[in-house]
Amino acid sequence: MSEEAFEVDRFLALVAAAQGRDIRLTSIQAGLLVAAELGITRDSRAFARKLGIAHSLVLRELNVLAEREGVLQIVKRDLRTMRVHYTLPPRGEV
Fold first, then answer.
1. Which one of 30, 50, 54, 65 has the fewest beta carbons within 10 angstroms of its own beta carbon?
2. What span, in angstroms and rounded, lies between the C-alpha atoms of 75 and 62?
3. Residue 61: how many other CB atoms lie within 10 Å
4. Residue 31, by phi and psi: left (phi above 0), alpha (psi -120 to 50) or beta?
């Protein structure tokens, strides 16, 4: 198994585990959280490009997560590109 395939499998396993801990999470939402936790990406456009999905879908799911208290924090919005930068709250903060 190549290193890249291993990383993809690991990412997908972590996404599934996140969904197992919180059944309200969609696959995209869980992916956003895992990507931020692993430092893979912390902005909507980069996430959409890496996963090959529409940026508009990522934005919709990111906004749903942002409405849930303590899940993630929007740190910057670029109105020109619609890119949204986000981060996870510090551990223990809710």
1. 54
2. 12
3. 21
4. alpha
Encode pLDDT of 16-61 as tens digits.
999 999 999 999 999 999 999 999 988 999 999 999 999 999 999 9
DSSP letters for 38-54: HTS--BHHHHHHHHT--
Distances (CA, A) of 36 to 26, 74, 78: 16, 12, 18
